[in-house]
Every structure is written in structure tokens, then in C-alpha cells.
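Table 4 source record.
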Amino acid sequence: MALFTDGSIQTSGELQNYDTAVLSVASSEGIDVTSKVLLAQQEIATELLLFLRRNSISDPRFLVRRRIGVGDIVITPPMRRWHAYKSLELVYRDAYGNQLNNRYQAKWTEYKQLAGNAEETLFEAGVGIVHYPVPRASQPLLTLAPAGVSGTQYYIQISWVGTLGQEGAVSDLLQVTSNAGSVAIVRTASPPPGIESWNVFASTDPGQMHLQNASPLLVDATWALPVTGLSDGRPPGDGQAPEWWLVERHVLPRG
């Protein structure tokens, strides 16, 4: 699973899984859905930080939570639902504000309630957290070198690996085209502290990516397409899974 800070929880197109009309409504009303998706994630980040601050007093990282922020939180299915409903709430709020259309007001009210319910469900079920977060890798760096191979087109993704062997989410796909007699040399961009090594995934089919290195590569190591062709290793993982869960504390009032 990706971390909260790895990027957008979901795209504007994915909101159609929850509301098939959202993009057409946004187009007719001049609403930038992508900006609403990002704004929804920012608002959720604020609520998550408040949740962490009020529920993690016993966590040794409580005193440095402001510095950690939400970088150790894992995106789980309940959080994806919250983000979707929050994004739709913001879209229909603007649509109603543009036209004062009762139909849009009903949708705004509906998604506001669904977003609130999803938030409550997440906090009751628990927010997934990792002890040592490994961020999504940035796209690799490429250079060309002479090699006795024919020209080919393939796709590359990499993932970063932490000092304890924990693997983060893979980078965005990078399309590589090499001419006959040359091969791309792949290296990772400078990773953040705590990253010890990296993995490379490649394929001629972007939907069939496979691990290429037998063991994680050191951060200063490179990888080149072997003359024997690509390996058929495991597919990319989903990133880090939660290592522990934090749930909403219920404190009964005195008296």
C-alpha cells in the first residue's frame, strides 16, 4: 500500500467509480476536479494530524509528531473511500455555489454526510501506520552506453528499500527506447535518508512488470539490460502494509 505522502490517493477519473456523472458535471460547471482531489487530501491530512495528536500520547513519537506529520500513515481502503467522498463533496459544493441548483445541493449534502461517515469509520477501525516509512521512489535516471544488443523498447519502474528490508511503492512507469548497439544504464535518483538499496522492475509490456535484480541494489549501483534479455521475477509489490493501528480513544466525561 502507498503512504499518504506518496502522492494523490486517487485520480479524478477514479471518482467515477463513486459518481459516474462527476466529470460531466465538473465540465459543465467549470470545476477543476484535480484541484478538488488535491484539496480534499490536504483537508484529510489536517484531520489525520489532529487525530494522531489526540490519540497517540502513549506513542514515543508524540512529541515529534509535528515533524513526522502524516508521512508514516498508510493509505487503506477506508481512507480511499473517505478521500473519494470528500472530493465529491467539494465538487458538488462548488457546483451548487455556481448555480444554486437544488439537485447539486442534494448531492453536496449527501457526499458531505458520506465523507463524515467514512472519516468516523476509519478512526473507529484504525489508521494504519508504519514504524519506518519508505516513500514511493522517484523515476530512475538513465544514461546510454555501448552494448551488443539490438534496439528495443521497454518500461522501467524502481522501488526503494529501507535498512530493515521494507520496500516502498514503485515509481511511475518510465518508457525506455534504445537503439541497436546501445543500452540504457539505470540508476536511482538520490533517495532520502534511511534508504539503503533499490529494486528495478522492467518489461516490454507495462502491464507485466517483473523484478530484474536477484538482490536489492546498493544506492550507488547501476543496472543495465542484460544481453540475455529481461528476467521473469516477481511483480512489483503494493508498498508497505500497516505495522500497527491507531484507533479513536473514547474518554467518558466526568460527573
